[in-house]
């Protein structure tokens, strides 16, 4: 994790410490990053589906009750070894349709900015 933004409002916040890690095979962000890579024979169904859809949606993979949506940032201008995604995590009540639209739009926008 390189950058984290948390909302100011709300009683409960879900956040990750900068530098935190988890297996790429778990959670929306990891799956989105794998989906941004070239296809591999051992890709999971979740990675293959995220590659088709342009996003990953997970529920409870890293934390019980957590819902995550993430989209890969894909552009040839990223330095080799640099991989990124835009994601949102909430507890139970995430508007997934809106989150999907937003993470995909912001991942595309970020890819455009990096590609300039």
CATH class categorisation: Alpha Beta
Query: CATH topology, anyone?
Result: Beta-Lactamase
Number of separate structural domains: 1
The shape is: globular
Structure summary, number of beta strands: 3
Assigned CATH superfamily: GAF domain
Q: Kindly, what is the distance between the CA atoms of the first and last residues, rounded to a whole number of angstroms? A: 24 Å
Q: Provide the spatial order of strands within the biggest beta sheet.
A: 1-2-3
Q: Averaged pLDDT, please? A: 86
In CATH terms, what is the architecture? 2-Layer Sandwich
Q: Residue share in helices?
A: 25-40%
Which structural category fits the helices and strands? alpha+beta
Low-confidence stretches: none
Radius of gyration: 14 Å
Q: What string gives the helices and strands in order?
A: HHEEEH
Give the count of helical stretches.
Answer: 3
- The proportion of strand residues reads 15-25%
Describe the main β-sheet briefly: 3 strands, antiparallel
């Amino acid at each position: 994790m390189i950058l984290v933004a948390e909302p100011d409002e709300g009683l409960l916040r879900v956040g990750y410490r900068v530098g935190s890690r988890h297996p790429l095979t778990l959670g929306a962000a990891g799956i989105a990053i794998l989906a941004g890579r070239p296809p591999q024979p051992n890709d999971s169904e979740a990675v293959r589906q995220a590659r088709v859809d342009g996003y990953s949606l997970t529920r409870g993979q890293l934390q019980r009750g957590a819902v995550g949506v993430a989209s890969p940032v894909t552009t040839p201008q990223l330095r080799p070894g640099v991989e990124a995604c835009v994601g949102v995590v909430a507890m139970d009540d995430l508007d997934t349709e809106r989150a999907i639209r937003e993470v995909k739009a912001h991942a595309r926008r970020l890819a455009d900015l990096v590609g300039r």
